[in-house]
Design a protein that fits this description.
With about 600 residues, the protein is α+β, with helices and mostly antiparallel strands. Strands 5-4-3-2-1-8-7-6 form an eight-stranded parallel sheet, sandwiched between helices. Strands 9, 10, 14, 15, 16, 17, 19 and 20 form an eight-stranded antiparallel sheet that branches. A hairpin with a 2-residue loop joins strand 27 and strand 28. Helix 3 packs parallel to helix 9.
Length: about 600
């Protein structure tokens, strides 16, 4: 049965059909290489720094500003798009949230957003609609570091990860295909371990399989990202990695007083950057900051038109060369141990090059090889079939040359274990001493512990690891090995007003649970897991309304997350997933969703526990 009054007439039916089509007809997943190739073929894009800093003469505005101070008096995203198109730009990236945490969309997770401002409109929607209408592909920038929310190094909690996932879910669900997510304040601020790269990557790829992720790392090798971002320096000569280079047409990233009368980057400089980037498979991302009116200054608009008249892509450039295999499905370790040295330095995910200063934490062993670092993944995961190793990234000369190689591992063994006592060798061999990321594929195994042993190193009797990680190149690892535990909702219990139905297609098992249309309506399943630990709960649901049907999540009678969002999808046959990570005890666990509104819960098909 429907849980809201049916729309009648041709208009209502058309609306439902359009919404359902938009939700289920996203492009099929392409290979990572095909996505990378499509991106570098865009060649030229517009970076748009427009956020709270625009109105406070600040690059990193302090958090907690009065939302009413965000007050564009004549916002015109179509003007931005027309300026980009005039320059020959094929894509754009908007700062949906910068480090201070102010959001340009009506997020449900914080009141520090545009709907509380003097301009209460969904700017992200205005942006994507305007750029798509102009034939320019919209992409988004999102800061993981959120000073308003307190998400920062040394304090990232499970609630913080849920917050990040919730906001990314909004951005990657409500605005159509987004082929590129640019993250910031992650590698160089808190690291990819504390704010789990596994959790964030899997969230993004589940929502939009064709969305590439690029982090602001300032590195010259792609590690835990799909592209390289050259923000602080020019793409190196001979680069063949899919990448992007960001520069601003003005002195800084955000608009500042005086910019409307200042001279933008010269035409010859812009053309020089384009002509440098293009043969190196690097898209040039030129930042063009709108001012407080909400429009890009006439001086910048004029310069962009000049670029468009003087430059066009080189059709004879060869196709993007084959790219290194990415670690498609990483598993974030919970801890590490080492025979000597500081083991966590090898897995904290902290590495960058920021304005001439290296930000890297290195594991360095004592003298006398072999030496090793052992990862604890927290649970037994399978399949584990790939390891990547990043050598040190410091240098003695230019940021893109003369890399230090002392201590880089040249001889290695890889071992795996399920119990931490008995280890089996899964791979071994030699590596060159250079700066390139080393990637090792091996026969898939189940493992909780993975050990990287250095048997020899470049020019030293000690070994150095900048970072290393493990996971799977082939398929998403799950806890316990193999397929996760699946609990069909109809096999559980539910409120007396609920019913098992099969009338809306797309369900699995023998049907789905339609709870009562009432506050407090619930659906509960019991799941058995072999060991206590952190598990991913994947709720498959349908919500044919256009409004949220939030539900409190209780595990073993304890409220673990209030008002979990089950967003409206406009059609009862459009099934989706809500994914959360929670702690379960060994043995049986009851998992209950309880409606927090009079509409009841969404239709619940199953819960998959991994």
């Amino acid at each position: 049965m429907y849980k809201y009054p049916k729309k009648t007439g041709a208009v209502g039916s058309l609306i439902l059909a359009i919404v359902a089509t938009l939700l289920v007809n996203l492009p099929a997943k392409a290979s990572t290489y095909d996505q990378q190739k499509a991106f570098v073929d865009l060649r030229f894009g517009m970076f748009i720094h427009f956020n709270m800093g625009t109105f406070h003469d600040a690059e990193w505005v302090l958090p907690g500003q009065d939302p009413l101070s965000f007050n564009p008096t004549n916002l015109n995203c179509a003007q931005w798009a027309a300026a980009a198109k005039s320059a020959g730009m094929k894509f754009a990236v908007l700062t949906t949230k910068h480090h201070d945490g102010f959001c340009l969309w009506p997020t449900k997770f914080t009141n520090y957003n545009v709907m509380k401002s003097s301009y209460p409109h969904d700017i992200v929607k205005l942006y994507v609609d305007a750029f798509r209408a102009a034939g320019v592909t919209p992409c988004i920038y999102f800061s993981i570091w959120d000073r308003n929310q307190g998400i920062a190094k040394g304090s990232v909690s499970q609630a913080d990860l849920d917050f990040i996932k919730g906001q990314l879910t909004e951005l990657l669900t409500n605005y159509g295909p987004i082929p590129l997510l640019v993250t910031d304040g992650w590698t160089w601020q808190m690291g990819h371990n504390e704010a789990s790269y596994q959790v964030i990557r899997e969230t993004v790829k589940a929502l939009q399989p064709n969305c590439l992720i690029v982090d602001h790392t300032g590195m010259t090798e792609p590690y835990e990202e799909d592209l390289i971002n050259f923000e602080h320096f020019t793409v190196p000569s001979g680069n063949a990695y899919a990448s992007t280079q960001g520069n601003s047409i003005m002195a800084k990233w955000f608009w500042h007083p005086g910019y409307d009368a200042a001279s933008p980057m010269g035409l010859s400089s812009i053309l020089g950057r384009l002509n440098t980037c293009e043969p190196r498979y690097c898209d040039f991302l030129l930042n063009c900051p709108p001012g407080p009116t909400g429009q890009i200054g006439a001086n910048i608009v004029s310069r962009l038109a000049e670029v468009g008249a003087a430059w066009s892509p080189n059709p004879s450039r060869a196709a993007l060369p084959a790219q290194p295999d990415p670690l498609e499905h990483p598993v974030t370790p919970v801890s590490a141990d080492a025979t000597s040295g500081t083991a966590m330095n090898a897995i904290d995910g902290t590495t960058d090059w920021v304005s001439g200063a290296a930000v890297q934490t290195l594991w360095q062993s004592n003298s006398g090889l072999p030496q090793s670092v052992t990862l604890d993944l927290g649970s037994i995961w399978a399949p584990i079939d790939m390891l990547t190793y990043m050598p040190r990234a410091d240098h003695t000369g230019d940021v893109t040359t003369a890399f230090v190689t002392t201590g880089n591992i040249t001889g290695y063994n890889i071992y795996a274990s399920t119990n931490g006592t008995t280890f089996t060798k899964v791979a071994g061999g030699t590596w060159s001493a250079d700066k390139t990321i080393k990637r090792v594929h091996f026969t898939p195994v189940s493992a909780r512990y993975v050990r990287l042993e250095a048997t020899s190193a470049s020019g030293a009797t000690y070994a150095v690891i900048n970072e290393f990680d493990v996971g799977s190149f082939t398929s998403k690892p799950t806890i316990g090995g193999g397929v996760g535990v699946v609990c069909q909702s109809e096999s559980g219990i539910w409120d007396t007003g609920g019913v098992v139905e099969t009338i809306n297609s797309g369900w699995t098992g023998t049907g789905y649970v339609n709870t009562g249309n009432a506050l407090g309506a619930y659906s509960e399943v019991t799941v058995n897991v072999p060991t206590a630990g952190s598990y991913t709960l994947d709720f498959r649901y349908a919500n044919g309304t256009t409004t949220d049907r939030p539900a409190d999540l209780r595990i073993n009678g304890t409220l673990v997350q209030a008002a979990v969002s089950f967003a409206g999808m406009g059609a009862w046959t459009a099934w989706s997933d809500v994914i959360v990570t929670k702690t379960l005890k060994a043995g049986n666990n009851t998992i209950r969703l309880t409606a927090t509104t009079a509409s009841g819960c969404a239709n619940l098909d199953k819960v998959t526990v991994q």
